[in-house]
Amino acid sequence: MATPRTYHHGDLRRAVLSAAIEVIRSDGVAAISLRDLARRAEVSHAAPAHHFKDKAGLLTAIATEGFDLLAAAVTTAAAGDAHRLREMGARYVEFALGHPAHFQVMFQPGLLHPDDPELAAARERASRALHSGVDGLPAARRGPDAPRTALAAWSLAHGFATLQLSGSLPPLEADPVDTFRALVDDHTGAGGP
C-alpha cells in the first residue's frame, strides 16, 4: 500500500532557499518560480508562500543571507595585518566566487523588498565590516576622504568579482583570488589602497 504524500517538511524554509540558490546558480534569477521550488521541495505549491509571501520575499531572504555571509567572510581578515584591506578585498572576491547566486541577488535592489528590516540590518553589518578595512588604515593611507577610499576599494573588489563571474576576464594564469591580490599590489603598492 502506498504511503499518502504529506506536506510536512522538516525545514521547508531552508529547503526552498537551497533549491532557489541552485536554480539561480544554474539558470539565473529569471528562472525562479515559487511553484517550481515547491515541486523540488516536494511540498504543496502554496507552501513556500507561508515563509516568503512572494518571489521578492524569497530573493530578499537570499540577499539577507548573502550580506551576512559576506560580513563574516571579510571579517576574517586579520585586524593587525598590514595588508588587511587587500585581504578584505580578496575575501570579498572569494565570497562572490563561492556564493555566485547570493552575489547575483544581493546587488539587484529592484528584485527585493527594500524596506525589509532583516535585509537592512544585514546590509548594515556587511557595510560596517567592509568599512572597517578603511577605518583601520593609517591616516596617510586612508586619505582625506575615508568614505571615498572605501568606495574605491569596494569598486575594485566588486568589479573584479563581477567580471570573473560573468566570464568577461581573459583566462587567468593563477587562482582568481591570488590574481586579485597581485593586481592590488601592482597598482596600489603592497597592502591595498
Structural account:
With 193 residues, the chain is mainly alpha-helical. It folds into two domains: 10-52, Orthogonal Bundle (Arc Repressor Mutant, subunit A); 55-188, Tetracycline Repressor, domain 2. It is 67% helix and 0% strand. The protein has helices at 12-27, 34-41, 47-52, 55-75, 84-98, 100-106, 117-135, 139-142, 146-165, 176-188. The chain starts with 11 loop residues before the first helix and ends in a 5-residue tail after the last helix.
Please provide the ordered H/E string of secondary-structure elements. HHHHHHHHHH
Classified by CATH, the class of the largest domain is Mainly Alpha
CATH architecture of the largest domain: Orthogonal Bundle
Beta-strand segment tally = 0
Which key terms come to mind for this protein?
193 residues; mainly alpha; Arc Repressor Mutant, subunit A; Tetracycline Repressor, domain 2; 2 domains; 10 helices; elongated; disordered N terminus
